[in-house]
Amino acid sequence: MRFTELIKTVFINIFSNKTKCALTSLGIAAGSATIVLVIAVGQGGKAEVAEQFKNLSAGAIEVSAGQSMDTVMEGMMSDRAGSGGFPGGGFPGGDFPSGGGGFPSGGGASGGNSRPSGGFPGGGRQASAMSPLSSFGSFGAVTLTEEDAADIAAIVPDIESISVICDGSAAVEGGELEEETSFTTAGVQADYADISNLEVQYGEFFTDYDEEDSEKVCVLGYKTAQNIFGAAYLAQGEYVSIEGRNYEVIGVLASMGTVSSGISPDEAIYVPYSTAKKYIFGSTAKPRITAVAADVSKVENVMADIETVLTQNYPDAAFTVTDAGSEMEAAEQSAKTLQTLLVAVASIVFLVGGIGIMNVLFVTVKERTSEIGLLKALGCKRSVILSEFLLEAAVIAVFGGLAGAVGGYALIPAVELTGTRAEPVFSAVIIAVAFAAATGTVFGFYPALKASRLTPIEALGSE
Known about the structure:
It is built from 14 helices and ten strands. By secondary structure, the protein is α+β, with helices and mostly antiparallel strands. It has a six-stranded mixed beta barrel.
């Protein structure tokens, strides 16, 4: 039998059993759609990770501080004071003046950020005054300062640049805003623009002089400028009110669509760090330090040195020191884990679809034994019978694969509605169809082999 005749026979058999073949291909279609979605979600995860970190230098390091270990003790003391354990809300003897049950910033125990007049001794910063509770260490939450950043820059080698950051929500008025609106506002130093690769599209970023003089100037993210003034190019030179004070807009960032140090540049307002600390956040500021290692290969050493310096400054405090590379690896690993899970699901679906094809072909062989016998009697070789049934299985599987691939593409918008980013990739169609064809061929082989082994007498006499 010629190949063209074989193909014609295959399609005649398939179209004569359209419903059965369509139902058989459903399992393969489901697996194919899953493959397309798996690749789309995986690609979306990679793209999202790349976007989140593309504006960070490879050697970027972020440092944040927790509470001192003795904050728990402070809370216990406050609770006792509030319940009447210590008369007057404080300690007897006058070591600690009454403070509503808490501890004042001055007095017997040093605050978390007190600096000695002697500079930076090897044992760290020490309290300037001792008290009966001085052995408990510093009280209250540790607040990182510009002095800490200066210490790190002076002591730790291989630091290219360093900046202090504090951010939070602030009330903003001005432009086309009809009412007071909250925007993410970040106080940063001039070096922050280089550290986070912020690109200014209109105007300029603030300078060290703005930082030193606590100038009321700001730089708007692209979307923020659009939200306030209607268009980004209209913002430069205008004024906005932040927490009741007017700030001149000296620059607007280019649209980035990324996340930097937990801040989305497009949707943020940047002001000098000293300005933010003085006029916007005050004592509620929770500064972080961002540094960039000069040599990416030495990031781990730099991180360890930074932690050593801060531990000397605050012996009882805990610090979190992370780098962009580790965060990226963790994010990529999460994306890979999700993709592996989805691939496992797709494999199971393909397995079920393949078993369906095998079952249908077994039934088909049983139904068409007389046809097989006739072909054998006319001189068809075993290889021809085997090829016919294998081609039928492959065509059914490929049909299901194509239908599933189209369905998978159609489902991508639905997946994105759940908050999962998905990036369609055309190669996913090829992969899905190839998997479908392979599944049909593998699971169709045994029924086809069984059909090819029937003898003419056995096949013709089966009815």
